[in-house]
Amino acid sequence: MEIQAAVLEGVGQPHRVRTVTLAPPKAGEVLVKIVATGLCASDVNAIDGKRTLVPFPAVLGHEAAGVVAEVGAGVTSVSVGDHVVLSIVPSCGTCSWCSQGITNFCSTAGNAMGDGTLFDGTRRLSMDGQPLHHFLTVSSFAEYAVVPASGVVRIPEQMPLDRAALLSCAVLTGFGSVVNTAKVRPGSSVAVFGCGGVGLNIVQGARIAGADRIVAVDVTAEKLQIARSLGATDVIDASIDDPVTAIKDLVGGVDYAFEALGREATIQQAWRTVAPRGELVLVGLMAHGATLTVDAGPFVNEQAIKGCYFGSSDLTQDVPRLVDLYLTGDLKLDELIGQRIGLADLDSAVGALRRGEGVRSVITFD
Ligand SMILES: [Zn+2]
Ligand SMILES: [Zn+2]
After folding, report:
1. For residue 127, how far is its CA from the centre of ligand 2 (angstroms)?
2. 147 and 181 part of one domain
3. How far is the CA of 98 from the centre of ligand 2 (A)?
4. How far apart are alpha carbons 9 and 114 in whole angstroms?
């Protein structure tokens, strides 16, 4: 089929909305009509070459929700007409990681993402007879996407699809880092460095997990105000106050610090706010090849630094739980959407995200 998609030729290039060809789903794949797709920092990292993984030319976009339009042979998990959340952590079910139940580490998916293909090593996207690369097996900056069936999760129809799109990446990552990776205990204290799409969901994840003190740190007043509405008990504007001193004054040290920016300087700050026996969770992705220097002193206090990929999420358990939390009013998503835009406005939203302005931009299709 012929569809409109935002094509990126290479690092630093502008998106061009073009007519591209999308081949039908093969066995184990589904065709999804994209209804909404968020713009995430990982898309911008790919555009800027911060992570070198992405082969070009490609169609980016990965934080999406839509409606199943066709299923390939053997697909029984979803049917045509089902509303679904798409995901960058599909799983093959048979590799050594999947066999252990650690599906977010699926090596089949990892290899496909590195090659810009789907699981069988081939591509469904092409333009003018030349193949285009898939991005993280999703490629949702397009009217339709062909994705692995394990990369979609059915959701109830009362869940609005533009808000469901946010579950796909920002919410699963942020909420998951609190609930799955750190397993934040009720009554504990939490600091969150960086209140973008992921950081704000760390804040509300901490609230839902029952944290007592939740200190949000950012450099923009708008994001700190949203952080407060999502459950932050204290906010620190790091453009005015030193966050380390401010957090020590407020709570002494925190049981859990989360860094959602992937920057060495803020990781170092976050590490200095952790209390003895507490931990720092690195949620933000650092640039490919980056190194990190931290003060070694706190290790004697049994402080720990923990990595996190995609909130250690298990889609089949976490997506239904998040939908329930939204529908009962505990999980707030409406506040997270800054603007709804069309594909043609993608690059201006990329610029705003790069500058750290505003909250989530969601691309919607009629
Ligand atoms: Zn993302
Ligand atoms: Zn696997």
Report:
1. 30
2. no
3. 4
4. 17
How far apart are alpha carbons 267 and 294 in whole angstroms?
Answer: 8
41 CA distance to ligand 1 middle (Å): 6
What's the gap in Å between 53 CA and the centre of ligand 1? 14
What is the number of the ligand closest to the CA of 40?
Answer: 1
**pLDDT surpasses 70 at 52:** no
Q: How far is the CA of 100 from the centre of ligand 2 (A)?
A: 9
Q: How confident is the model over 301-308, as a mean pLDDT?
A: 96
User: Of the ligands numbered here, which is closest to the C-alpha atom of 172?
Assistant: 1
Same domain, 39 and 89: yes
**d(Cα 165, Cα 363) in Å, to the nearest integer?**
10
Return the SS3 of 299: helix
CA 246 – ligand 1 centroid, Å: 30
Question: Which residue from 246, 263, 207, 213 is spatially nearest to 230, judged by alpha carbons?
Answer: 207
What pLDDT score does 258 carry?
98
Question: From ligand 2's centre to the CA of 101, what distance in Å?
Answer: 9
For 203-252, what is each residue's pLDDT tens digit? 999 999 999 999 999 999 999 999 999 999 999 999 999 999 999 999 99
CATH number for the domain harbouring residue 94: 3.90.180.10
For 344, the 3-state DSSP assignment is helix
Task: Report pTM.
Answer: 0.92
Instruction: Specify the pLDDT at position 356.
Output: 80
| Interval 278-297: pLDDT, tens | 999 999 988 888 999 999 99
Smallest-distance ligand from the CA of 89 = 2
Q: Cα(60)–Cα(44) distance, rounded to whole angstroms? A: 9
Asked if residue 134 and residue 78 are part of one domain, the reply reads: yes
Ligand nearest to the CA of 38: 1
Around ion ligand 1, which residues have CB less than 5 A away?
40, 42, 63, 169
173 Cα–ligand 2 center, Å: 19
Q: Are residues 125 and 234 in the same domain?
A: no
Coil, strand or helix at 254: strand
Same domain, 108 and 212: no
Which one is predicted more confidently, 45 or 51?
A: 45
- Position 319 in a domain: no
Provide the number of structural domains found in the chain. 2
Q: The domain containing residue 300 runs over which residues?
A: 170-312
